[in-house]
Design brief:
Number of strands: 11
Structural class: mainly beta
Shape: globular
Length: about 120
């Protein structure tokens, strides 16, 4: 089992910045991909950005140039640096990790990001 604990959400004005963190613990040896998804009220959960153990990344078009994902393998922690926040970025942000040996996905409980206009 893998546990994911997110932190860093909160309320910010449009144009502001926030950094989310997610620490993984437990059976993390085979965790390859880590990342962030988000779910806004009334909408489906969507990919924000993800990163492999080797550092390859991909992100949603809506956040490119504004959000940066990074990872500290020694700390088993993934970060999401968010700048230029917009009201449409308001959502619950979920940390995600994939165990490639078991083909199993793990999710954090989520952290709320609210961007006021």
């Amino acid at each position: 089992q893998v546990q994911l604990v997110e932190s860093g959400g909160g309320l910010v004005q449009a144009g502001g910045s926030l950094t989310l963190s997610c620490a993984a613990s437990g059976s993390i040896f085979y965790i390859n991909v880590m990342g962030w998804y988000r779910q806004a009220p009334g909408k489906q959960r969507e990919l924000v950005a993800r990163i492999t153990r080797s550092g390859s990344t991909n992100s949603a078009d809506s956040v490119k140039g504004r959000f940066t994902i990074s990872r500290d393998n020694a700390k088993s922690t993934v970060y999401l640096q968010m700048t230029g926040l917009k009201p449409e970025d308001t959502a619950v942000y979920y940390c995600y990790a994939k165990d490639v040996s078991l083909d199993m996905d793990y999710w954090g409980k989520g952290t709320l990001v609210t961007v006021s206009s």
